[in-house]
Design goal:
Layout lengths: L1 E5 L4 H12 L3 E6 L13 E5 L5 H8 L4 E4 L12 H21 L3 E5 L27 H19 L4 E6 L1 E3 L8 H10 L5 E2 L3 E6 H14 L5 E4 L2 E4 H12 L6 E2 L2 H18 L7 H7 L8 H7 L6 H17 L1
Parallel strand pairs: 1-2, 1-4, 2-3, 4-5, 5-6, 6-10, 7-9, 8-12
Antiparallel strand pairs: 9-11
Length: 327
Amino acid sequence: MRAFVTGGTGFIGANVVRALLEAGFEVRALVRPTSQLTNLQGLEVELVRGDVLDLASLRRGMAGCQVVFHVAALYSFWVRPRGLIYQVNVDGTRQVLQAAGELGVERVVYTSSVAALGLGTREQPADETTPVHPAHIIGDYKRSKYLAQQVALKFARNGLPVVIVNPSYPVGPYDIKPTPSGKLVQDFLARRMPAYVDTGLNVVAVEDVARGHLLALQRGREGECYILGGENITMKELLQILSEITGLPAPRLRLPYWPLLGLSYLNVAWCRLSGGTPRMTPDTLRMSRHYMYYSSGKAERELGYSFRPAREALAGAVEWFRGREAG
């Protein structure tokens, strides 16, 4: 069986490609002319030049493929111009699903995000049925992923055989940019985290997320969403685990929210003038006020999904980042 993959050069996509190859699939990957191909080097993957915003290239790439994995997305909390993240995440998803429908593929697995779902609490983690409160759709990334998921659900209602997966906070190998989740690990290793904020995250090994994509293909119900998450831990616990793995000290200073919010506005203003990338933005700080805890119970029950502990996921990320620096 041949699978067409968008975003195969990226973090989650590169792991999905490897999971597909290990399962015996032939893989055809869409790559932009400017894509960095490091994550696909040495793999038996057919490359097709194109873009998720170029319908003709999508049709060309999908021709002869039975299944599609639409993994490509902009995962960033600072994209300029701002409209680009909506073009890639929303319009790109619409184009991919349109091409899949025209070509009559057997099934599409669309990589959404827990960012498109509602927020739970520390005591009651969110699941796929948690209502989405408009006030909790903070920032362009979350808004774009929410809108893109609505596009996918509409295609499903109109008969496209699409299954949606919602990864949480993945860490692990092939995070070459890195993504915001990988940047946290990288900053810890570089001793660039003198303090932390009071928040909580659902940490998952990216290899488990990739395996969850294949399970969604095989066992997922069309038009349904499945959280591919891991272990819920506080930021303090995450940093303590990283300290135990690496031997580096964990920051002890917890910073208050309001002074940081003011600093974040100054940081953003400076970056707009200098062309740099802010280390923190008002949106990321507003998100940190919520404990982003999720339950993968539905995926466990229906797909047979499982995940390794956060410690193991973080250890894998540390090993990969350190190996990359050494190499």
